[in-house]
TrEMBL record:
InterPro entries in UniProt: DUF3429
Pfam families reported for this sequence: DUF3429
Name used for this protein in its record: DUF3429 domain-containing protein
PANTHER family: TRANSMEMBRANE PROTEIN 69
Record lineage: Bacteria, Pseudomonadati, Pseudomonadota, Betaproteobacteria, Burkholderiales
The UniProt record lists the keyword Membrane: yes
Top-level taxon: Bacteria
Transmembrane segments: 20-41, 47-72, 84-102, 137-158
Swiss-Prot/TrEMBL keywords: Membrane, Transmembrane, Transmembrane helix
Amino acid sequence: MSDLLSSANRPLPTRIPRAALLPGLLGLTPFWALALSTLAGTGIDPLLALTALIMYGAIILSFVGALWWGLAIHAPANAPRDTLFVWSVIPALIGWFATLALPDVGLRMLMAGLALQWVLDGMLMRKVPELIPSWMFRLRTMLTFGALGALGLAWWQLV
């Protein structure tokens, strides 16, 4: 029990743990594989690839929003818990609406949703630094910009 209590007082790691980095980077694979499939003759129907890309983007946007639900549960007293709980479902709604829109609009909605979530994550990290380890925001930055690049490439192909 004393080990558990003493570990709670240790500083948060600043280096991105490999256990988070590798799955995160692997999560970019569908973004890029599907975005590139809309460009090159890969044997995958471009409309199917585009639809799959939008659906995957919606799932990931929902996932990053849901992180705020988990943060709210463990938030210290000075954190805006109500805001965390409420916002945690908004990205899922943005993603869902993106799946219902025309592909060019859906891609832009996903890009806007991911960018907005990244901005809000940064704001939350500055407001309540003990809530989000610095490595998590660095990882989110890499993954967000990786996803935005793939979505932007697919959108550019459409216009």
